[in-house]
Write the structure tokens for this entry.
Amino acid sequence: FINNEGGRRCCMPSKNLAFSAGGYNLLKSNDGGITWTRHPVSNDDYFMTISFADTLNGLASTVWGQLAKIFRTFDGGETWQHISSIEGDAIYDICFVDSLVAYACTGATNVFKTTDGGYHWNSEYNTGVSGTILYGIHFVNRDVGYTVGYPGVVIKTTNGGDSWELLKPNLGNGLDFYQVHFKDENNGLVGGEIVAHTSDGGI
């Protein structure tokens, strides 16, 4: 990134509109990532991830110790508001499905879910896979989603997080996956120390 602004997670809600979070910065591009503008939010918060449900509604999370702050924008990243906090867990990734529903993964086995646009979060969505550190999460819609992490795990839900299935437990051979993205229910990528592709929903 230009001027050492940094970038840890990126999302593109449209062809030209892109956002990035990393360190103390939230960045926005209106030309597909060629140039970036820093939007000051807070000098005290370390941003880990960012996700947009559409071109206007976005969520970003920070981490400092064991406190994750959730920020929201309603105007395409021009202004941000601190709307909630999650104590005791570090948020590594967020997926904003629509203007109300979003999911977040932590450095543990549980997944957080909000149904009111990020103001309140429910942590009762446990993947049931012990010994994991979840780094990435992506939902195709409100029901079908994936979370990935250490040690090379890909975990899937088809009912909005009520239950989860571990897919191909040896896929990563013990190597970490940091990100996951699906363009539809069948076609997706997981990436980290290795990259893997599926065209059958991860089966």
